Amino acid sequence: KVLQLTLAVIKPDAVAQPLLLEALHRKILENNFIIVRRKDLIWKRSDSERFYAEHKGRFFYQRLVEFMSSGPMRAYILAKEDAVSHWRELMGPTKVYRARYTSPKTIRAQYGLTDTRNTTHGSDSSESAEREIAFFFPEFSVQHWLEMEEPHFRM
Ligand code: DAT
Ligand code: MG
């Protein structure tokens, strides 16, 4: 089995609720993701703007960058077979009300506050996972992980 990496982030609205933070951490473990790295951090507004540059000009951009730099976040590098799509499935759709309607058991449906304050982030492809992991964990080398750590998790 080939392990895939993804970036998962618990956003400031969820980190602000200690029991929710705990529940989301448990959900990661219960779904058999390997926690490769984990980091608590706070973004400056400029970090937020850089990370979401693709959304510049959209009506929600200001509130998005404001929100993402409003308080602590927790970022994880997760590994699993099909980690990218599995984490996205657990999160549910971007928009909270759509999530509640179409997939009520997902994280965003259950805990999201609004379309912007939607509890979690997950990479949407292995290419964006690579870019986003480098953004959050600049000291992390995928190559080094593949050589030195990944073999220990082979079944
Ligand atoms: P996702 O986080 O599901 O990958 P995205 O990449 O399209 O969604 O957008 C990034 C974030 O921007 C999203 O998590 C919340 C915010 N956002 C996206 N679309 C929005 C909308 N229509 N209204 C408010 N916020 C939105
Ligand atoms: Mg996205």
How do you describe this structure in short?
With about 160 residues, the chain is α+β, with helices and mostly antiparallel strands. The chain is about 45% helix and about 15% strand. The protein has a single domain, classed as Alpha-Beta Plaits.
Question: How is this fold's topology laid out?
Answer:
Blueprint: E1 4-10, H1 12-15, H2 18-30, E2 34-41, H3 45-51, H4 61-68, E3 73-80, H5 83-91, H6 96-102, H7 107-111, E4 120-122, H8 126-136, H9 142-148
Antiparallel strand pairs: 1-3, 1-4, 2-3
This protein binds 2'-deoxyadenosine-5'-diphosphate (DAT) and magnesium ion.
The site of 2'-deoxyadenosine-5'-diphosphate (DAT) has 9 residues, from loops.
Please provide a written account of the structure.
The protein has 155 residues and is α+β, with helices and mostly antiparallel strands. It has one domain (4-89, 122-145): Alpha-Beta Plaits (2-Layer Sandwich), CATH 3.30.70. It is 46% helix and 17% strand. The chain contains 9 helices and 4 strands. Helix 3 (45-51) crosses helix 4. The longest helix is centred in the first third of the chain and has 13 residues, at 18-30. The mean pLDDT is 97. 2'-deoxyadenosine-5'-diphosphate (DAT) binds at residues 55, 60, 64, 94, 115-116, 118, 121, 124. Belongs to the NDK family.
